[in-house]
Specification:
The chain has 1022 residues and is an alpha+beta fold. It folds into five domains: 417 residues, Multidrug efflux transporter AcrB transmembrane domain (Multidrug efflux transporter AcrB transmembrane fold, Up-down Bundle), CATH 1.20.1640; 87 residues, 2-Layer Sandwich (Alpha-Beta Plaits), CATH 3.30.70; 97 residues, 2-Layer Sandwich (Alpha-Beta Plaits); 159 residues, Multidrug efflux transporter AcrB TolC docking domain, DN and DC subdomains (2-Layer Sandwich), CATH 3.30.2090; 193 residues, 2-Layer Sandwich (Alpha-Beta Plaits).
Length: 1022
């Protein structure tokens, strides 16, 4: 080929070209971000709206459904889900992959603005924001003290610690949990208010009017300006207590006469236990474009200085660190790259028996891998688990073309040619085969870009990385390798090792040729045996489970627990203490943290951080199984212990099955309860729950509008009074200790502990008389739902479940679906949410990509060989090789997932390379006059050594994956099993089946390419 001829003649040019590739790669390596996984979260927008005092039912019918209808007109929507709770509507819109989220957000805002006028009066303007895929903390820090209370700890967290952490490079936000922020609390006394003729509106108006924080302006003269500062703000308890509420002729009423004023907590709806002690937690959220390892390292570096500024009695500990797993997993993969390089070097040395030949081949590894990193940077990829795994496999693949080059050139040198002549002859001889094998391996990944969902987003980065590495190896083999062969390889007396290797391979090749002659004579029997073996293997592997990713030991476990509907924080705190005690009792535990509240006061979440992998004998899965009975036995709370999602798609249950209905929520709740009860009875789940439950006690206050009208009291006055008294009103702010805090007016807690206390709430009529609530309204006890959810614009509830120990997620989901379908009447349907939705969307993706890859390779080979017969011969053993790879997976009890899937796809390209070498050399010999049987046997005998070298090099590169340990080992083991077992068994089959099929399908004589007639000169026509 003219390309190789050029670089053989111009060695400096060849070196310069490859050094430029190295420089390009080093630049990319310095800039390339590091992440655990590619960003696989689907594009998502959220819409939030509030309407003070509205019930969940009112929010759902009057706000949520209206906004969903407006948003549904926007294109490229995957699914719309929403939650309607008291006073709050939250809608999440998930879009198809590849949309321009900024443009879509503008369309959504326009749609929302069109229906704002249809929303109830006093509804806050809906806000549309882009949801972040990385909004979960990578670290939790626990602030605790034996002498300071939660108020004082919160003040330290907000004043000193949060600002210090926020300025760390790469930090997006700091979530403070379990906080007790200071506030000035005005606790109203309903009896005193009624006695003194004061309403809640009187107090809030007086407080707001007496505490004003506004700039007053300035005085100006001809030569000077002087700022004027008013003194209309209050900053202590006494000042607020002295605010005048009413001033009649005969008496004066101040705030302190009708309320208790104190510095207290703004809210007490969350709590945190860190290592069994009350604490305030700070969650560090990294920016989506930041390296989490760098962020965590910077946070840890900042902690000593922060601790020095805190009182000596205060402790600040890292109780949860997700980056431990990320760092350990990435470190394991980096080590795997080194191990793969070492094993490939050993294989090449053993096969070539020459240091000179080995150097030429091994140079391909750093050149190809480093240049690939540069392309990753240009494409906006990151150095993550999938791109690193691709580089691991590339170690054994990028040497293939160089191996073929070196082996063929050395063969011609041994036949008496000079090194220069041998380089020209040998490179030209295998030029087509090298290009064909390179393009074949790249072509197998071409359909990956068509994959939907999470699997597609994962496959793309792996496929591009491996394809680029192979392309660069092909470039090196056409530029640098031939030049190095012409300058480094030489003839001469081989060493003892080389003689031994050469003698061994000559014997193997000779015996292989002899055996092959017998196989070809009985080729029909050979093919029949191969088909039978393949069929038996298919029966063995047909029931392999399909998942998005295998479960991993990530060094921590998650505990989810929930109390009865309507449970208070006081009820949940003892439950949290029991959960915390269970987590802390784990022998492998390092730290534990339990959070209660946040979303609702009846739910909680716990984490237990485990010792490093090499310091414990039990896996996280085994520890989780041991904790299940303890958590399940807790009275008054339902809990579960789960592994974190291996792809970070959810922080809770691995199964989320959505039950949808066009009917009422009450009927939906009844059907969901039946499904939950049946699932528990069946024993297929270890935990299952439905959030939809009409079990939350509610007291409905219904106004008698006729009586209220006669007294001059309207419904809005009553609603506002109840809102202030029972829900609290943030009236104004006050400055204290150089910070602004809320001033909250609310009824004393002891005055609202039971239904009868509602009659102690008074309103003022037109005559100025204080009227009890019971005079204008009646109360009714009822049960309601805390929140109402919708999915795909239908009323819904999501069944969250975890499999019973030893049962797969796929099998459990199928069993749950069967149970649900047996129970659900007409008007009900099933859907999927969270990681389950991603799994279902990606279901069948691996098979689709394998089939598409097979077809693509077939077309590419047909174009290269100018024949449809040769590609069929080359790819004949691909199905058997895939079955062999699945067999390796079955031996590990693995699954078809994102990791093993890329291994199966890679197998097609790898096994096709053997057929290409055999078919191309056989065709060349037939062009020289040999019959097809002689030609194919000779081709197999000559090509046996490079085929075995490339196979064992690729297998050696994947071997460290098969024997992986530590963080992320399960995923690496599965991809290693597919490559190693599939490649070795597939190669053994291909060495006999490909030649047999070649002799069956090829004609006796080769048809030459059509050549155009010679052009005639103008004189020829004269």
């Amino acid at each position: 080929m003219w390309v190789t001829d050029l670089f053989i003649r111009r060695p400096v040019f060849a070196i310069v070209v490859n050094l430029l590739l190295v420089g390009f790669g080093i630049y990319g390596l310095m800039k390339l971000p590091i992440q655990h996984l590619p960003d696989i979260s689907p594009p998502t927008l959220s819409i939030s709206t509030t309407l003070l005092g509205a019930s969940a039912q009112e929010v759902e019918t009057q706000i949520t459904t209206v906004l969903e209808g407006a948003v549904s007109a926007v294109g490229s929507i995957d699914v719309i889900s929403s939650t309607s709770s008291e006073g709050v509507s939250s809608i999440e819109v998930q879009f198809d992959e590849g949309v321009d989220l900024t443009q879509i957000a503008n369309e959504v805002r326009a749609g929302v603005n069109d229906v704002v006028s249809q929303l109830p009066e006093n509804t806050d303007t809906p806000t549309v924001i882009l949801s972040s895929s990385s909004a979960t903390p990578i670290l939790y820090l626990a602030l605790s003290s034996d002498s300071l209370n939660e108020l004082e700890l919160t003040d330290l967290a907000l004043r000193q610690i949060e600002p210090a952490l926020q300025i760390v490079t790469g930090v997006s936000s700091i979530d403070v949990l379990g906080e007790r922020d200071y506030a000035l609390r005005i606790w109203l006394d309903s009896f005193r208010m009624a006695t003194l003729g004061v309403t809640a509106d009187d107090v809030t108006a007086a407080v707001a009017g007496a505490n004003v924080i506004l700039p007053a302006g300035a005085l100006y003269s001809a030569t000077q300006s002087t700022d004027v500062a008013d003194d209309a703000s209050l900053n202590d308890v006494t000042g607020f207590g002295n605010i005048m509420v009413r001033h009649d002729d005969d008496y004066l009423v101040r705030v302190r006469d009708v309320a208790r004023v104190e510095i207290g907590a703004e809210a007490e709806d969350t709590s945190v236990l860190a290592d069994d002690k009350p604490a305030v937690a700070l969650g560090v959220v990294a920016r989506s474009d930041a390296n989490p390892l760098t962020v965590a390292s910077s946070i840890k570096a900042a902690l000593p200085a922060i601790l020095e500024s805190l009182p000596t009695s205060v402790k600040l500990d890292i109780v949860f660190d997700e980056t431990i797993y990320i760092e350990a997993s990435m470190s394991e993969v980096f080590d795997t790259v080194v191990e793969a390089v070492f094993l490939v070097i050993v294989v090449i040395m053993l096969f070539l028996g020459s240091l000179r030949a080995s150097i030429i081949t091994l140079v391909t590894i750093p050149l190809s891998l480093i240049a690939t990193v540069g392309v990753l940077y240009v494409l906006g990829f990151s150095l993550n688990t999938f791109t690193l795994l691709a580089l691991v496999l590339a170690v054994g693949l990028v040497v293939d073309d160089a191996i073929v080059d070196v082996e063929n050139v050395q063969r011609h040198i041994d036949q008496g040619h000079t090194a220069i002549d041998a380089a020209f002859i040998g490179s030209r001889e295998i030029g087509f085969a090298v290009i064909a094998t390179t393009l074949t391996l790249v072509a197998v990944y071409a359909p990956v870009g068509l994959l939907p969902g999470t699997m597609g987003r994962l496959f793309v980065q792996f496929a591009v990385t491996l394809s680029v590495a192979v392309l660069f190896s092909g470039l090196v083999s056409r530029t640098l390798s031939p030049m190095m062969c012409s300058r480094i390889l030489k003839a001469g007396d081989p060493s003892f090792l080389k003689k031994l290797i050469e003698g061994t391979f000559e014997k193997i090749a000779s015996r292989y040729a002899t055996l092959l002659r017998h196989v070809i004579k009985a080729r029909w029997i050979t093919i029949l045996v191969a088909v039978i073996l393949g069929a038996v293997a298919v029966l063995f592997v047909h029931n392999i489970e399909t998942t998005l990713a295998p479960a991993e030991d990530e060094g921590y476990l998650i505990t989810i627990f929930q109390g009865p509907q309507g449970s208070t924080l006081e009820y949940m705190e003892p439950q949290a203490e029991a959960i915390s005690a269970i987590l802390s009792s784990v022998p492998e535990a390092v730290h534990s943290i339990v959070l209660v509240g946040g979303g609702s006061t009846n739910s909680g979440l716990g984490f237990v951080l485990l010792k490093p992998w090499n310091e414990r004998t039990r896996s996280a899965q085994e520890i989780a199984l041991s904790l299940w009975p303890q958590v399940a036995a807790l009275p008054g709370v339902r809990g579960a212990v789960v592994n974190p999602d291996p792809l970070g798609l959810g922080g809770g249950y691995p199964i989320e099955l959505v039950v949808k209905s066009t009917g009422t929520y009450e009927n939906l709740a009844d059907i969901a309860d039946q499904i939950v009860a049946k699932a528990r009875e069946s024993g297929v789940v270890s935990a299952i729950s439905s959030p939809l439950s009409f079990a939350t006690p509610e007291i409905r206050v219904e106004i008698d509008r006729d009586i209220a009208r006669e007294l001059g009291i309207d419904a809005s006055t009553m609603a506002r009074t109840l809102s202030i008294m029972l829900g609290g009103d943030d009236v104004t702010k006050f400055s204290w200790q150089d910070q602004l805090y809320e001033v909250i007016v609310e009824l004393e807690m002891s005055d609202r502990s039971q239904e009868a206390d509602l009659d102690r709430i008074y309103l003022r009529d037109l005559q100025g008389t204080m009227v009890p609530l019971s005079a204008i309204a009646s109360v009714h006890d009822t049960l309601t739902a805390q929140s109402l959810t919708r999915f795909a614009q239908e009323r819904s509830t999501t069944l969250s479940a975890a499999p019973r120990g030893g049962r797969s997620v796929a099998a459990t989901l199928a069993a749950l679906e069967a149970i649900a379908k047996d129970i659900m009447p007409n008007g009900f349907s099933l859907d999927y949410s969270g990681p389950t939705r991603q799994q279902e969307q990606s279901s069948g993706s691996t098979g689709l990509v394998v089939a598409a890859g097979f077809f693509t390779i077939l077309l590419v080979l047909a174009a290269q060989f100018e024949s449809f017969r040769d590609p069929i011969i080359i790819l004949a053993v691909a199905p058997l090789t895939l079955v062999a790879g699945a067999f390796g997976l079955k031996l590990l009890d693995g699954s078809i997932n994102a990791y093993s899937g890329v291994g199966l796809i890679t197998l097609i390209g790898l096994i096709a390379k053997h057929g290409i070498l055999i078919a191309e050399f056989a065709n060349q010999r037939r062009d020289n006059g040999e019959d097809k049987i002689t030609a194919v046997i000779a081709a197999c005998e000559v090509r046996l050594r490079p085929i075995l070298m490339t196979v064992f090099a690729a297998a050696a590169g994947a071997m460290p994956l098969l024997y992986a340990s530590g963080a992320g080992a399960n995923s690496r083991e599965q991809i290693g099993a597919v490559i190693v077992v599939g490649l070795l068994l597939g190669t053994f089959v291909s060495l006999f089946v490909v030649p047999a099929i070649y002799t069956m399908l090829t004609p006796k004589t080769r048809r030459p390419l059509v050549t155009p007639p010679p052009e005639h000169s103008p004189s020829a026509h004269a």
